[in-house]
Amino acid sequence: MAETVKIKTRNLSFSYNGKRILRNTSIDFAENKIAAIVGPSGSGKSTFLLTLNRLWESIPNCNLEGRVEMKFGNTFHDIYQKKYPVTRLRRQVGMVFQAPNPLPMSIYKNVVFPLELAGRKDGEDARIMVEQCLKKVGLWGEVCDRLDTSALSLSGGQQQRLCIARAMMLQPEVLLLDEPTSSLDHKAAAAIEELLVDLKGQCTVLVVSHYLDQVQRIADSIVELQDGDMKGRSLVFAA
Ligand code: ADP
Prior knowledge:
By secondary structure, the chain is of the alpha/beta class. It has helices at 45-53, 86-92, 107-117, 124-136, 140-143, 156-168, 186-199, 212-218; strands at residues 5-16, 19-30, 34-38, 62-72, 75-78, 93-96, 174-178, 204-208, 221-226, 229-234.
C-alpha cells in the first residue's frame, strides 16, 4: 500500500548569520512512521528539526527560504504562511531534546503543564490524560505513588520518558526527537526505543540519531544530511 505523506519540504534553505546550513532541500516524510535523520556532527540535523516547528524564529540573524508543508486533516498547510498560528503548530508538532529537560516542579505538574499552557483547566479530565500519557511511556507504574514529588528526583531515563509523556499531552501528530537517548545508559535507551516504536501508528516520528544500530532497530526510513541537502534512502534492513 502506498504511504501517505505527512511532511514535505520544498526548496528549503536555512542560514545562521549568512552561513548556509540547508540548501534547497526537498524531501517527504511518511505519516505514522519513524524516519531517522543521520549525518555528520554539525551537518544541520538539529537545525532541520527546528525548521519543522518554527522554533528557530527566536534565534537572531537566521533566514529561511522555501516551504514546509504538513498534512493536518486532509489538507496540506504551509506552516510558514502568515495566517498559520504558531500556537496551533506547537500543539501539532511536539519536540523532545537531547538532554531531558523536566521543569523544576512535580512529576504531575510537568506532564499537565502543556495542557495548562493551552488554556485548559487542571481537573479530572487532565488527571486521566496525565495517567494515560505516563502509561504510554511506561512510567506510570514507577511514579503513580509519588506524582507530587519533584521530577528532578527521577533518573535520566525516567526524566526523558517524562519529557516524552509531556510532549504527548497535546496529542501531537508529529513528534521530533533530537538524539533522545544520547545522555542515557543502555537500558534507559532501550526503553525509549521501544516507546518510539509503540508510538508509531499514532504519530509521525522524526528522530535524529547518530547510533547506526539504533537506526537499524527502530527506523522505517533514513535520510542523510550531507552538504546541506538531504538524501532519502529506504532501509534495506527494515523488517
Ligand atoms: P547537527 O545537529 O547536525 O550537529 P546543527 O544543526 O546543530 O548540526 O548545527 C549546524 C551548523 O549550524 C553548525 O555549524 C553549528 O555550529 C551552526 N549553528 C547551530 N546553531 C546555531 C546558532 N544558534 N547560531 C549560529 N550557528 C548555529
